[in-house]
């Protein structure tokens, strides 16, 4: 439960469904962390649900805001949920109305340059991709749903990058994304300075957005990646993340067991991940061919009783 106060605003919903905790993080998913921080900044009291079942995790776009006794989907994904809050007259950016342009500009910069760099680290880097899939896989119940989810997410991100940057030289595109991500971190370092939040003493929606993608980079399984090391080397950014985790989200339960089975150093080599993927594809292919042969009549199975 997110903490409440006497001046707590009201929002018509019954529960918030998120991906589970990971170590010091109340959720290992960036968008879920964005919503948790946004709700904490808004002093919204939420009934947090993480025991959804493997098929619910597979089909739902989390985070998911539910209403009317958990039967109606109010909004899914961070942007939709934040917009729903604004439409319900709960807007943590109201006090910064004179700086709305600055908020929108920084939000656009983070979304266009930093978020792709984080997604590239998580889902396109062979060194860390298997560790990321393994974390999501615990909620999905392991193979084959984790394999399918990982493949779908990877392909979706590749397609997004190809549309945005072109696909003439994908490796060069990834290098460009990485360099742009580092420049955003430099900008955030200068903007934050010694302030508790990016625009002063009080948090904004942009603080929630930046925290959501910065926290799992620093405290997640890819914390040894180049982008994560670059972010961690900025002391004020690291303190920014830890301050929000401690002051605003410290009361949320964490899953310490995840740190035992998924250390920050990657347990599997890229070749092991590719071999697992190949074996899975071969297995699915064989099952598909057998099913096709059976239903098309190419093979028949007869059971005769011997007297």
Automatic annotation (TrEMBL):
One Pfam family this sequence matches: Tom37
Signal peptide interval: none
Record has Transport as a keyword: yes
One GO location term (cellular component): SAM complex
Subcellular compartments: Mitochondrion outer membrane
Transmembrane stretches, start-end: 279-299
Cited InterPro entries: Glutathione-S-Trfase_C_sf, Metaxin_GST, Mito_Protein_Transport_Metaxin, Sam37/metaxin_N
Keyword terms: Membrane, Mitochondrion, Mitochondrion outer membrane, Protein transport, Transmembrane, Transmembrane helix, Transport
GO terms for biological process, alphabetical: mitochondrion organization; protein transport
Stretches assigned to the Mitochondrial outer membrane transport complex Sam37/metaxin N-terminal domain: 32-151
SUPFAM superfamilies named among the record's database cross-references: GST C-terminal domain-like
Entry annotated with the keyword Protein transport: yes
Domain Metaxin glutathione S-transferase: 182-244
Family: Belongs to the metaxin family.
PANTHER family named among the record's database cross-references: FAILED AXON CONNECTIONS-RELATED, METAXIN RELATED
This protein's name: Metaxin
Classification of source organism: Eukaryota, Metazoa, Spiralia, Gnathifera, Rotifera
